Amino acid sequence: MRPPPAKAPAGLFLPLEHTTAAPLYRQLYTGVREAILAGRLAPGSGLPSSRALAEELGVSRNTVILAFDQLVAEGYVEGAPRSGTRVAAVLARPTVVQRSPRPGPGPSARGRAIAATPMAALSRGATPAIPFRPGVPALDRFPIALWSRLTARRWRRHPALEYGDPGGYAPLREAIADYVRVARGARCLSGQVIVTGGSQQGVDLAARVLLDPGDAVWMEDPGYTGARTALLAAGARLVPVPVDSDGLAVDRAERLAPDARMAYVSPSHQFPLGVTMSAGRRLALLRWAARADAWVLEDDYDSEFRYDARPLASLQGMDEEGRVIYVGTFSKTLFPALRLGYLIVPPRLVDAFRAARAVSDRHSPTMDQAVLADFLAGGHFARHVRRMRRLYSERQEVLVDAAHRRLGARLHVVPSAAGMHLVGWLEHGRDDAEVSARAAEFGVEAAPLSRYALVPPERGGLLLGWAGYPPEAIREGVERLGAALE
Q1: How far apart, in whole angstroms, are the C-alpha atoms of residue 19 and residue 127?
Q2: CA atoms of 46 and 68, how far apart (whole Å)
Q3: Collapsing DSSP states into helix, strand and coil, what is residue 281?
Q4: Sign of CA dihedral 318, 321, 322, 325
Q5: What's the rounded Cα separation, in Å, for the pair 423 and 402?
Q6: CA 365 to each of CA 159, 272, 339, 361, 368: distance values in angstroms, whole numbers, following the listed order
Q7: What φ, ψ does residue 26 adopt, rounded to 5°?
Q8: Which of 190, 343, 375, 419 is the most exposed place for a label (fewest CB within 10 A)?
Q9: How many whole angstroms separate alpha carbon 248 and alpha carbon 296?
Q10: Quick one: what percent of the chain has pLDDT higher than 70?
């Protein structure tokens, strides 16, 4: 039996604006849709014919037909021969659009843990770097003209526009393998290199490939908050392990969690304390990993910058059993916006990491990888690092001298043999978070040491990055910090 003809509702108010950029059919579609969702048009109620509605609204019949066709396609209305167009019966309980909808469900427990970490501040957007933000390279000395020429040459001669290899651009992987074998004493072939979107993605991939939710991970304490967040995101159970002058206390870690699945370390230049893991601790860590069938995640974020001797060999180069996952980055050596880093993984894990990289975001931009490969192969990277090593040593001297003159005993600043930041130690009993907030009021960014600790440190300190700031900015920053400390 054919349904009775649809009865058109009286007073269907659909104002159309002829002066806006929105097409009239789209305005008509939106008006009818909102009337249905708000309950003003009940299920089964009829709509005027396309001819009648076109005359009423002063538009062409094609405009009305286009709007009705879209409404039919999305299931809001239905039409049948000789019975007209009516609101779909399946909308028997219309969804009412509220002006102030009730909040939906919040994040999971894991999501809340991630949102509570210091890394959450990055989600609010970048801010200009001011003294003494750590991890900022000397962008004022980056060879932009050279990089631009390499980029232009790539676009002219060899533009890479297809999908790329999840493991990374092959010439870049070759160049990275050559570099780390010579400069870092690593043991690897190019096939073991996985190009990532910076070291942060490298840690995230390692956590997702190697850990199951609930697995225990030794975490340097204090330690890098980015690694902490990535490990938490993978569902890891973090075990804070104290760091002394020899690095992560392996014997203490074994007592705390002998069955841990992974240890996260930055042995060449521990972040944030700046100490170097001793040879004895390195061997003890590798022996534990072999006994426990565990992994060691080595974060080698800024080891190129050592000022009293040649950079130290990597922990990965000592690994005889393929237990170490090596994480490297170009954010500190070149510029952060490049967002290119790399992993060196044991051969038996290559396929798993390549698959995880493909799932994550398929691959890093191929043209950026190609330009970086040219930069490495042409010797420009090695020359840039040598220049920055000299420059950073000079800038550290400026910071230490200014701090000794202006800050005195209020902030004990000791030179560092490596890296791009140092720790200024506050007087015992002084709250570093409070001092950091006070410094911010004076236009100085000096992160509190407690921000990087899972267990509150016995003594407060401030992280002072110097690499990215010219001498005059460093001296001005010290002056402002002195005013804040007073």
Answers
A1: 40
A2: 12
A3: helix
A4: negative
A5: 15
A6: 12, 31, 10, 10, 6
A7: -70, -40
A8: 190
A9: 12
A10: 92
Structural domains in the chain? Answer: 1-98 (1.10.10.10), 110-122+143-382 (3.40.640.10), 385-485 (3.90.1150.10)
Which token pair is 80? 């049948």
Query: Quick one: DSSP state of residue 260?
Result: -
What integer best gives the mean pLDDT of the chain?
90
Distances (CA, A) of 100 to 40, 73, 95, 97, 104: 19, 29, 14, 9, 12
Cβ proximity of 444 and 436 under 8 Å: no
Per-residue three-class SS string for 198-212: HHHHHHHHHHHHHCC
- DSSP secondary structure, 418-440, as one string: BSSEEEEEEPTT--HHHHHHHHH
Non-local CB neighbours of 355 within 8 Å, separated by 6+ positions: 166
Strands 324-329 and 341-344: antiparallel
Q: Which single residue is written with the structure tokens 């239905």?
A: 78
Question: How many CB atoms are located within 10 Å of the residue 445 CB?
Answer: 22
Per-residue confidence (pLDDT) for residue 482, from 0 to 100 = 96
pLDDT at 442 over 90: yes
Model pLDDT, residue 102: 65
Listed in sequence order, the DSSP H helices in 316-460 are 350-361, 366-377, 380-406, 432-441
- Which tops the pLDDT comparison, 408 or 96? 408
Amino acid letter, residue 305: F
Q: Tell me if 187 sits within 8 A of 316, measured CB to CB.
A: yes
Q: Rg of the Cα trace of the chain?
A: 30
Tokens of 471: 């001498």
Q: What is the pLDDT of residues 152-208, one digit of tens each?
A: 999 998 887 889 999 999 999 999 999 999 999 999 999 999 999 999 999 999 999
Cα 417 to Cα 435: distance, rounded to the nearest angstrom: 26
Q: 134 with 449: CB under 8 angstroms?
A: no
Burial of 224 (0-12, 13-18, 19+ CB in 10 A): buried
- 31 burial level (CB within 10 Å; 0-12, 13-18, 19+): middle
Q: Band the pLDDT of 396: cuts 50, 70, 90.
A: very high
Bridge partners of residue 342, in order along the sequence: 195, 328
| Rounded distance between C-alpha atoms, residue 216 and residue 212, angstroms | 9
Q: Residue 195 class from Cβ within 10 Å (0-12 exposed, 13-18 middle, 19+ buried)?
A: buried
Neighbours of 79 (CB within 10 A): 15
Task: Give the whole-angstrom CA distance, residue 383 versus residue 399.
Answer: 25
For strands 237-244 and 247-248, give the pairing.
antiparallel
Angstrom distances, CA of residue 286 to CA of 125, 281, 290, 323: 39, 9, 6, 8
